[in-house]
């Protein structure tokens, strides 16, 4: 077996290279639900956060006892690795039938709340045929929200998240590789929901982008727009008006004047309990500030119904 012999300096350098990927834990949805319930305390959107917390608990039940969810074949995984493409490319998998059982299982586990509009949305999803469900799924993941009723988005998004997280956690080791397109998830090709600024160990000070779909995290350098990759004149905005307090805000938005887009960043040094999806939902007031200043949200949150509750 042949291989390259590393010199001492190279060995030390290799040991200090941070991991490219952070995979989610198997209890990711339960952790998300618990974070949402804590964030809901005294929050103006407490009702919505608690609704989504219950949905996340149903997601965890499906992930713990999944139905049959046929994913990519070994041949497809080999091709994706050879060509450095996402092994769970969402465009391909959502057009297939493999994820639909996750939606049925989620609808079975989720306890319908008293809200009549939610009951109508759940019934609409339950009664839709496979073609309609897939069309809605493609529309949601492509950001074409006008292609589906807004009330369906969180429940459809939750089902897709379960399926893709299930597939991600089942992938053979080293299947996900760094791709040329650093602004999209190397596992499924989806955009990030937020950036997570780590504060411990080898990842101290590094940014990982959190996938909006499969919950994979991948390393992405700081002070660089996650949409257009511009590095000049980026602004970091929070709800704090005092400069000293703003520098210690747990959530700040990296705003880019080049593309007029932004991405929220969770600084774990100042908010160690932050969870990407949950803290994004609980900080919609920051989105309002960015919108007022002319910036566009580039990051989807699949648990958010576009246009409000």
The computed structural class is alpha+beta
- Proportion of helical residues: 40-55%
Distance between the termini: 59 Å
Average of pLDDT? 92
Query: What order do the SSEs take from the amino end to the carboxyl end, as H and E?
Result: HEHHHHHHHHEEEEHEEHHE
Features of the shown structure:
globular, 309 residues
Question: What do you see in this structure?
Answer:
The protein is of the alpha+beta class. It is built from 12 helices and 8 strands. It has helices at residues 8-15, 28-40, 46-64, 74-82, 90-95, 100-109, 116-127, 130-141, 153-170, 243-246, 276-281, 284-292; strands spanning 21-22, 192-197, 207-211, 217-219, 235-237, 251-255, 261-267, 296-297. Strands 1, 2, 3, 4, 5, 6, 7 and 8 form an 8-stranded mixed β-sheet that branches. A hairpin with a 5-residue loop joins strand 6 (251-255) and strand 7 (261-267). Helix 3 packs parallel to helix 9. The chain is globular. Mean pLDDT is 92; it is low at 1-14.
Structure in a nutshell:
This protein has helices spanning 8-15, 28-40, 46-64, 74-82, 90-95, 100-109, 116-127, 130-141, 153-170, 243-246, 276-281, 284-292; strands at residues 21-22, 192-197, 207-211, 217-219, 235-237, 251-255, 261-267, 296-297. By secondary structure, it is an alpha+beta fold.
